[in-house]
Each structure stands twice: as structure tokens, then as C-alpha cells.
Amino acid sequence: MTDRTRSLVIDTDTGSDDAVALIMAFNHPDCTVRAVTVVAGNVPLESCVRNALITADLVGQQQVPVFVGLHKPLLRPLETAAGIHGDDGMSGAQLPDPSRQADRQHAVQALLDIADQEPGQHILVTLGPLSNIATALLIDPQLLTKFQHTYMMVGAADGIGNVNAVAEFNAWVDPEAAALVFAAPGAKTMIGWDVCRKNTVMRAEDETRILAAGPIGQFASDIRRQVREFSIELNGASDHEFPDPAAMAVALDESLIVESDYRHMLVSTDEQTRGLTFADYGLPAKAPTVRVITTLDEAGFKAQLFAALSGL
Ligand code: BDR
Ligand code: CA
Questions:
Q1: In a domain, 32, yes or no
Q2: Which of 27, 141, 265, 304 is surrounded by the most beta carbons within 10 Å?
Q3: Does pTM top 0.90 for this prediction?
Q4: Whose C-alpha lies nearest to ligand 1, atom 10?
Q5: 28 classed as catalytic
Q6: Measuring from atom 2 of ligand 1, which residue has the nearest CA?
Q7: Predicted local distance difference test score (pLDDT) of residue 45
Q8: Residue-level pLDDT at 269
Q9: Is residue 126 assigned to a domain?
Q10: Atom number, ligand 1, closest to the C-alpha of residue 42
Q11: pLDDT per residue as tens digits for the range 243-298
């Protein structure tokens, strides 16, 4: 490993944008993926696991362990985003069966073991509901301090949601888990829906570049067909945000952060505002718990994305 090499543990509810984020990590020249842990979210757990394995196969990363985690949120039934990503999470694209099965160890145990046995060596990137991470934290409250940093695609810093009025999907699916993770010690960065709306919108010309990237670009396009169709239904255009790739881009290259600040972040578990992520600015002032990104370098993000899909 060179000094620049980053080693990632990626927790994912592998649907279509998670798969693209995984490719960005797998194909990054200065990154190794230590493990993938899977959680239910976009679609039921079994499909998320299958999608993670297929994605690793696609880029020749069969050696990366894939661990199966929680099949539902801590306290609530699972509510998926199959309406957006398709019943299989991958727009029903014709994909080959994975070449292997997932590892036998539970994802929560894998997170605990990797953190314990290799402290300070890895970066944690979370792309789904935080159920696996929160469960591991209930066993080891210091878990996140054993990672170099935790980058999370979760929440909405401006309180504008994509599921209900105020909540982003990952926070909304398992708000109790998100609250536990926000409160846990350890360096954390939140890449929320607000910054995705502002700086990650994929337009027709971006799709053209994705397709031009070759077979991996074709895969990235095929698995997102239903997201584009959903956007056309919603807004009359296929333009759509790209949340998990944005979080991965930052985890791979902090220089993409244009504006950020540190906040004492909380998560609502009340029904009407379920999953709202908000800062407590009340007095007396509380210690910040999370770095919140509010502006990303959009051109830099897309350049990193296109390079990864081209296999550069
Ligand atoms: C998040 O929800 C999921 O649908 C995406 O994979 C992303 O992690 C965006 O709100
Ligand atoms: Ca996700």
C-alpha cells in the first residue's frame, strides 16, 4: 500500500446507485476494498447481496469478502425503494448470476472484527440505512473510533426530503439507527440529499458519457433505467441525483468538498418528521458530532465517476 492508498469497508443496501459507488471504489487506483457489508434497504436483503456480488464480479473483485447483515431496521419493518430502483434494485436488467455466495460470517461481526483487529487502518463508507452500523455500535460503542473516518450518505441538511417532507431515504428507513450512529464517538462526515440535489444531478449529456465509457458504463446505465423513468414521471425529464456515488467520491477524494461545517446532528424518530436530520444549535452550545457537506465540486465528482466507469 502506498501512502495515498485508502482501504475501505463499504456498508451498502446495493441498489443501482450503490452499485455504481462500489465500482468507483473497486476501480480507483489508490483504493482497496477490505470488505463489503450488506444491509436491507433499497430492496430486500437477498437482492442487495446478489447485486453486491454481481458488481464485484463485473470488475474482477471476487476476492473482496461480502458479508450479509440485517434484513430489517432495528425497530421497524423494512420499507424499500423498489418503486425507484426496480424490484431487484437493478431495473430488472439482464445480469449474470454471481460467481460465488456471500461469506458466512455475519456483517455485524465482520465490522466488529475488522475494526478490532485492524484499528485505524480503514475508512468506513455507508451507503444505506445504518442498521448494521448501529447494531455493531450497541456491541462496541467505540466502533467508529477504530476507523480512520466514516463517510455516510444519509440525511438532508436542509430538511427537504425525498421520502416524506423532511427525510432522506436512508435516514427515514432506520431513524433509530441513524440517531445512534450520529451520537457515536468517531470522525464522521454526512453527504446528504441536499448536496446531491445541488451538485450531483445527472443530465442527458452525463448519461451519454456514461454510455461512452464502455461495458461498465453500459451496466451503470442499464441498472438505472427505472430511476430515469421515475424521474421522467416525476419531473418530465430524466435528470436525477446520484447520492451514493457522491458519498463515495468524497471518501476517495476529500478535495471535492467545497463547503462544510461541523454540527451537533440529531435524527427525528417522531412519526410526522420521521428521519429528519437536523442540527441542535440550542444553548448551551453542544459539541459538534458530524461534519456536514453543503457544497461539492460537481465537475470534479463527475470526472472521478467517468474515470471509474472507463476503468481508468
Ligand atoms: C439513498 O437512498 C437509496 O435509494 C439510494 O441508494 C441512496 O443511498 C438516497 O436517498
Ligand atoms: Ca444506497
A1: yes
A2: 265
A3: yes
A4: 169
A5: no
A6: 169
A7: 98
A8: 98
A9: yes
A10: 4
A11: 999 999 999 999 999 999 999 999 999 999 999 999 999 999 999 999 999 999 99
Find the ligand nearest to 154 CA: 1
Q: What is the CATH number of the domain that holds 271?
A: 3.90.245.10
Q: Given the residues 28, 85, 122, 240, select the one marked as catalytic.
A: 240
The domain total for the chain is: 1
Q: How far apart are CA 173 and CA 95, in angstroms?
A: 27
181-206 pLDDT tens trace: 999 999 999 999 999 999 999 999 99
Q: Which structural domain, as residue segments, surrounds residue 210?
A: 6-309
Residue 20 lies in a domain: yes
- The pLDDT value given to residue 311: 80
pLDDT beneath 50, residues of the chain: 1-2
- Within 6 A (CB) of ligand 1 lie 15, 17-18, 42, 81, 127-128, 153, 162, 168-170, 193, 243-244
> What's the confidence (pLDDT) of residue 134?
99
CB 146 within 8 A of CB 185: no
Is 230 in contact with 99 (CB distance < 8 Å)? no
Nearest CA to 42 out of 84, 95, 97, 98 is that of 84
Answer yes or no: is 39 within a domain: yes
